[in-house]
Write a structure and sequence with these properties.
This protein has 263 residues and is mostly helical. The chain starts with a helix and ends with a helix.
């Protein structure tokens, strides 16, 4: 069997393993999924009129705020889902299963690839579920073309891949599941400090650079433009650059840490 065939076979096996774990222990995924759903409902039904009036210059329009809010909530969903990946990787390391895998004739990279692909699939499934809730409460994307929908899906997959590799690295450096969850907390906090809920221009001047020059804001603005058929500007290139940069950084960090551990 060639090296490529071995890698594909073993990665597929590890992917099935991680998906089975997610199915047998759904509580972590459900807990992380509830956060964006609750925030969506909270900001739409409790703060929707006030927030829309502030953004719209005095006229309350809850439907307009739903359209503004949903892209940020979808990317926040990905950030929350990958926290579970960090916890899962940390559990594998602390429970000794990784050491067991190292004694078996399998492709070394398949362990990490299985975690990454499984996490990306879970992230997209979570986005679909949260998106269904958004549609149920009034979100519509009638101005987006088929090409823009495909680009939005590609951005979600790319963003999920980037954050997943970073989460894998966080899991590898964490001594236990609690530490992994704490280390991955920025994945949930950064969307709160972005343009997910209010425009960057409405923030205090000293805070705008923090909100603007972080990975979530350009990704949110790009996704918002694609779904609503509005202008994207330079945010598209910034979002892709952030995704590619985080993917490369997370990949080399994760593989270096994984290969550094005793064989």
């Amino acid at each position: 069997m060639s090296l490529l065939s071995l890698a594909v076979r073993d990665s597929s096996t590890m992917l099935r393993r991680n998906l089975l774990h997610a199915r047998r222990y759904p509580s972590l995924t459900l807990n992380l999924l509830l956060t964006p759903v609750m925030l969506l409902l909270l900001f739409v039904y409790i703060f929707g009129d006030v927030m829309s009036a502030g953004i719209g210059g005095g006229s309350a329009d809850r439907s307009a705020y739903i359209a503004y809010l949903v892209p940020g909530i979808l990317l926040m969903t990905i950030g929350g889902t990958v926290v579970g990946t960090a916890v899962s990787v940390s559990n594998d390391m602390s429970e000794g299963i990784i050491a067991r895998f190292r004694t078996m004739p399998i492709h070394r990279g398949s362990v990490l690839v299985g975690h990454v692909v499984g996490s990306v699939l879970q992230s997209i499934a979570s986005v679909v579920l949260v998106g269904a809730v958004a549609v149920a409460i009034g979100f519509r994307s009638t101005d987006a073309s088929v090409l823009e929908w495909l680009a939005a899906f590609g951005l979600l997959v790319l963003f999920a891949t980037a954050l997943t590799w970073i989460a894998v690295g966080m899991g590898l450096i964490s001594p236990n599941a609690e530490a992994a969850s704490n280390n991955a907390l920025p994945m949930i906090l950064l969307p709160l400090l972005s343009s997910a809920f209010v425009p960057v221009d409405a923030m205090p001047g000293w805070f705008r650079p923090i909100a603007e020059y972080q990975p979530f804001t350009p990704a949110i603005e790009t996704l918002r433009g694609l779904l609503l058929g509005s202008e994207i500007g330079h945010n598209g290139w910034l979002a892709v650059a952030w995704c590619l940069g985080l993917t490369v950084l997370g990949y080399f960090w994760s593989t270096a840490k994984f290969n550094h551990d005793p064989k």
